[in-house]
Write a structure and sequence with these properties.
The protein has 284 residues and is α+β, with helices and mostly antiparallel strands. The chain has seven helices and nine strands, in the order H-E-E-H-E-E-E-E-E-E-E-H-H-H-H-H. The longest helix has 31 residues.
């Protein structure tokens, strides 16, 4: 501390590992560089990547790399979307690894590169198969100059920054839902007061929750509903106020309450539950 200002000190790699060892932490050093290539490997028709360059590096532990060197290439096109490879995803490629049937490979065909699934049919013919029905598989023939660069071991998905408008709409939707739920609880409080004579125990609030959930668009949790029901301004003469956990226990003991209220009667609900449910449904 100096003049009430904290100045942090950065550990060296050696100091950091010594500290981890002293604390008994288990860790793995990421000390193997993985090149990131600027070229894009096509997931459609083969694409030339003559301008291939190393854009940068990131590091992995030796245990994650294996025997062969690895690089990352950026995918483009739509022929592999059913394998969850989309435009802009990074393909971590193990160079020189021998492919087995079903492996996703990066192959060079007559000087152009493509990412496809390697496959050998019953007749011993070799294919590169797309994972999109709109594309045709490529039969590898002797007339082609084909080399398998390596096997794709990992697909690294890109994290796309979401737009301001999208975030704003999510917040606005949440605010509207809260407003709607508040309106539902206000209407429910009036209906409960008007139908107080139909409540026979605090467990009858499970009926009120079912109506709010299925008929009024209430999306809050059961515990949230209980808290709001407890906070209702009900007449002093009201006998059966909601209690914490009562609604959840009642629903757990009456499986039909997990169904839509329209199905309660045919699945064993009592007459008084149906009467209360119909009253609340009509008056909320």
């Amino acid at each position: 501390m100096k003049n009430d200002t904290f100045v942090p000190q950065l550990m060296s790699a050696e100091e950091a590992t010594a500290w981890l060892d002293s604390k008994g932490f288990s860790y793995t050093l990421c000390d193997v560089p993985i090149p990131i290539m600027t070229g894009r490997v096509n997931c459609g028709a083969p694409l030339s990547i003559d301008d291939e360059m190393i854009e940068g590096y990131y590091y992995l532990p030796k245990s994650a790399v294996g025997l062969h060197p690895q690089v990352e290439l950026c995918a483009q096109g739509e022929s592999m979307i059913d394998a969850d490879i989309h435009d802009g995803d990074m393909l971590r490629l193990e160079l020189g690894a021998w492919p087995h049937d079903g492996d996703i490979v990066v192959a060079e065909i007559d000087g152009e590169y493509t990412a496809k699934v390697y496959f050998t049919d019953e007749e011993g013919r070799h294919w590169l198969c797309p994972m999109n029905k709109r594309f045709q598989p490529i039969l590898l023939t002797e007339s082609m100059n084909v080399r398998i660069s390596g096997v794709v071991r990992t697909i690294v998905k890109q994290v796309v920054r979401r737009s301001y408008g999208e975030c704003q709409s999510i917040v606005k939707r949440m605010q509207e839902q809260r407003q709607q739920q508040g309106d539902v609880m206000q209407r429910l409080a009036k209906a409960v007061a008007d139908g107080a004579h139909l409540f026979w125990a605090s467990s009858s609030w499970a009926v009120a929750y079912g109506v709010a959930r299925d008929c009024c668009g209430y999306e809050g949790s059961v515990s949230d509903f209980e808290r709001k029901a407890l906070a209702m301004d009900l007449p002093k003469t009201f006998e059966y106020c909601c209690s914490v956990g009562k609604v959840q226990r009642t629903i757990s003991n009456h499986p039909y309450m997990r169904l839509h209220v329209d199905k309660w009667k045919e699945n064993g609900a009592s007459i008084r539950e149906i009467v209360l449910m119909e009253f609340l449904r009509k008056n909320i």
